[in-house]
Amino acid sequence: MSIFFVREVDASQIFSDIPSNHKAYDEINYLVKIGVVNGYKENGKRLYKPGNVVTRAQAANMVVMATGNLPITVSTSSFSDVKVGTWQSGYIEKALSLGFFPTIPNGKFRPNEPLTNEEMSYLISKAFKINIEKTSTYSSPFLDITSQSDSFKYINAVYFNGITQGNNNYFRPDKSVVRSDFALYIARAKSSTYRLDFPTAPSAKLNDVEGQVEVTVDDLNIRSTASTSTNKNIIGQVNKADKLDSFGITNGWIKVAYRGKYGYVSTKYVKHTTNSGSKESTNNSSTNVNDNKETITSNVHALVTTSSLNIRSGAGTTFKVIGKLSLNTKVVVNSITGHWVNITYNGITGYVSKSYVKILNQTDPSDILASVITSSLNIRSGAGTSYKVIGKLSLDTIVTVNSVSGEWAKITYNGVTGYVSKSYIKTLNQSNNNELKSRIIILDPGHGGSDPGAINGKVYEKNITLNIATLVKQKLEVAGAKVYMTRTGDTYPSLEERVNFAESNNGEVFISIHVNSASSSSAKGTETYYYVRTSEDDKEDINLASAINDEIVANLGMRDRGIENYPYYVIKNTTMPSVLVELGFITNSEDRSKMTTNNYVNLFATSIYNGIEEYYRNNK
Length: 620
Known about the structure:
Layout: E1 2-5, H1 25-33, E2 38-42, E3 45-47, H2 56-66, H3 87-97, H4 117-127, H5 152-160, H6 179-190, E4 211-215, E5 220-223, E6 234-238, E7 243-250, E8 253-258, E9 261-266, E10 270-272, E11 293-304, E12 308-312, E13 321-326, E14 330-337, E15 340-345, E16 348-353, E17 357-359, E18 369-372, E19 376-380, E20 389-394, E21 398-405, E22 408-413, E23 416-421, E24 425-427, E25 440-445, E26 455-456, E27 459-460, H7 461-478, E28 482-485, H8 495-504, E29 509-516, E30 526-530, H9 540-556, E31 560-565, H10 569-572, E32 578-585, H11 589-596, H12 598-618
Parallel strand pairs: 25-28, 25-29, 29-32, 30-31
Antiparallel strand pairs: 1-2, 2-3, 4-7, 4-10, 5-6, 7-8, 8-9, 11-14, 11-17, 12-13, 14-15, 15-16, 18-21, 18-24, 19-20, 21-22, 22-23, 26-27, 30-32
């Protein structure tokens, strides 16, 4: 098979697999005429292969050509996975030099991996100089993209500039782009002739976004007014797990953005997301302990924990914004009322959401403090779920820990003393040196049963991961941790079952253990994945990934492939800090030998143990 560049041709059928009625026929012909598209010659036929995915290298090639640039002749590659002298190298180097791709982590370009829709939005916006700021204040038209989504500005830009309208109100950022669609996107970006009709500028603007909500039921009506008195105000429907930008609560209704317009949904059928980067809490439940006013009599300060926090003239989202605070700004705390903190900073006194500040000092510096890590935590009268709920705590509330017994912590907050599940608080400072005692840790040996994972001869990934996970468990239990494994034998729990197992056992951290493979036997080393949705997310996942990865690299002399943000199912869907460790490559003889030799196997287990211990030591 050979790749060729088609130059000047007429408008007849160029490729045998692109008939005149194909959706991208005109656009592909246009790109052929200007010498952009890649074609294939097989068995005497010219093929475009419209259903094939576009690789990152192919995307670099096509966009460099479409923007009138030439590849760079290089003597040294910037990437360990791109060889000098291949057709890919010059185009990739040129695309990077022009800023068409974001900074590439870990020295790998991943040239043969499919280009995703999210990556496409960045690439097209940058290459064709689309003004991303012009549409950055518009609410997203897609149900799976909100203002807190990765690449929100770029996705808005390609939509509002007529490049793509997604599919049935969804953008599907992780979906691979196929060759026919990529031809459409390039043609539309390069020539206004092919652009879609410009969508009407939306009425829903992001300036007043208060946060994000997630739908908890299917077929939830979006209404133009906050009322169920008529069905004439229904403007659409959303389903379970859809996320919407929210603009505050009014009498049991949340104002949201839907397809670029304002709408309303009942508070009964949505929940506030805890990782959306929302700048203010809209939970006004009168049953919360936090609704009592707490006057601060001593010199107490707080630290801002988000990148842009509104200061309001009163304790609520309906009050006027009188200022903004940036990440890590230190403010004076005057009083706390419900979810709102009265603060003073640079002569300005006002109110900020309690969820986005961290109290720095307490009356008694010897107190053991903990932070609530869930959006609504029950306080019970005793250590068990059978005891009466006597109050609730919201996300990031700081409490005093009096004692810990099993899975329950006795705490005091605002004069109320009761019990909370230990899994939903994070200790901020400990008075003892045993970092792992009573911690609840979930280990997930990858694959198993009918799914062997990566294979090399008689060496199976599923056996390596179970062997090492079992040793890690033993080491953690000696240190006093409570350890659960998603499998303890040659069985295969589904990905969903693994996540549910971690959640039902109230895990504090989740470590999924895997083995890598590659088509080339030279690929080697350790890499660890974490997942956070936005820069506002909790960085504990990153800290956990770094600690484990660094220990393995240092103790076993593995090549360091670094850590990377990637939405693997088990780490994307667990609510606790979660990582996925790729120990080494089963296809590399050196890595494989280490993963199957007892001395090194023990070192892998020790390194994971050390990484977990370091994580807890540094995240008190």
